[in-house]
Amino acid sequence: MEIHPLHPTFGAEITGVDIGRPIDDDTFARIRQAFEEHALLLFRDQDLDDEKQVAFSERFGPLEKTFSQNPAGGTLFARQSNLDIKTGETIPIEDARMVYQRANMLWHTDSSFKRVPSLCSLLSARIVPPEGGNTDFADMRAAYDALPDATRQRLEGLAAEHSIAHSRAQVDPNLLSDYQKSIEAPPVKQLMVRANPVTGRKALFIGAHCSHVVGWPEEEGKRFVRHLMETAITPDICYSHQWREGDIVVWDNRSVLHKATPYDSKKYKRLMQRTTVAGDQPTVMQ
Ligand code: OGA
Ligand code: MN
Question: Are 125 and 241 contacting, i.e. CB atoms less than 8 angstroms apart?
């Protein structure tokens, strides 16, 4: 097994492992250590089906079930695709399933709208368009390190409100039902700065689900979150992944933001399958 950094601040490609087969504990310990250190791991040329993806993902911890609105909602998968799950036909752009996926184009971290936010996501490329459809990633540890001292001090101990209603409202305010907004996924609080328990490195924890600061006047908190989103994510902390079929990327949702980028969904097919590993505790008392 070899580890090759992908970007100056984060990300590494791991070669020499077939993750579709059972992995011995020593090898997995090295993969896990690389994950803590590099925050994003790429494995190429993997021959994965759903079952193998679940088996590898579970090495990181128990998996989440996905939000009801995803086409694979309620299963262990989130399906990012323009193909109908039953017929395989291309889904029209104005269909609610495509509108819902548009929110993926906002910088976000998966499941920060859950009381216990996720540890990591694993996204595997099953069908890839010949152009477009990259996934962009931002290293929020490097973003935190680059903040002015005064901003870092201001963030100390702050929590923010996160909700799926907030992220989806940026695409279409009518996308979610009242049940989904208030019962299935009511707003939660998350610390704005999270430290990795293994390396101690701090990361700025914001993104599209994050709306305002808990305990501040709402407008002021919204402005602060927007200001951070606009200034902290700079090109030098970003890596754009151009997918090849057989790629799987694992990213640390505690310290990396990501977003989908456009592709011609009328012309090309895209099918990505995501598994999400649950976190083990809330970041803050609710
Ligand atoms: C995801 C996601 C981005 C993409 O699967 O969580 O945001 O490019 N995907 O499909
Ligand atoms: Mn996502």
Answer: no
